[in-house]
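Schema walk-through. Below, the input block comes first and the output block second. Nothing else is stored per chain. Lengths vary across the set, and this one has 154 residues.
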Amino acid sequence: MKGKRDQITGAVLVILGIVVFLMTTTFSIPITSSYPGPRMLPDIAAFGFVVCGLGIFIESVVSKREETCYLKKEGWLKVGLVFLMIAGYIAGMMVAGYLITTPVILYILTTVFAKGSSSTIKGRIVFSLLTAVIIYLIYVLAFGLTLPSGLLFN
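--- output ---
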């Protein structure tokens, strides 16, 4: 039996979920009812990866539909570009911090994927800034956590 693309995707998600969970077990701060700590959100994500991966895998095994072409060359180039941008985002966060790097990378990502849509430069800028600020406020004010400030501002 030839493996379907969805089976591979489901298996990768399950493995990724397990890896994330195993990585969070190295955190020294335990989860308590008074302070969930930095481990709670990655554990929830790991659980979601495993559940969704199992669902995708099982649905693919049960399904009898034929596969079609997944991505053309341009699509694979965009996937590669996104991975490069994520690597750049991580490097940028270490240097310039969250508040500078996040709006920039969000603008670049929305510009890359705006091809064929009616989005404007102004709309992408507003979206990028608002998203970064909302996430910052949720993490800092609601959760009381800190986000990377970068080497430039330490």
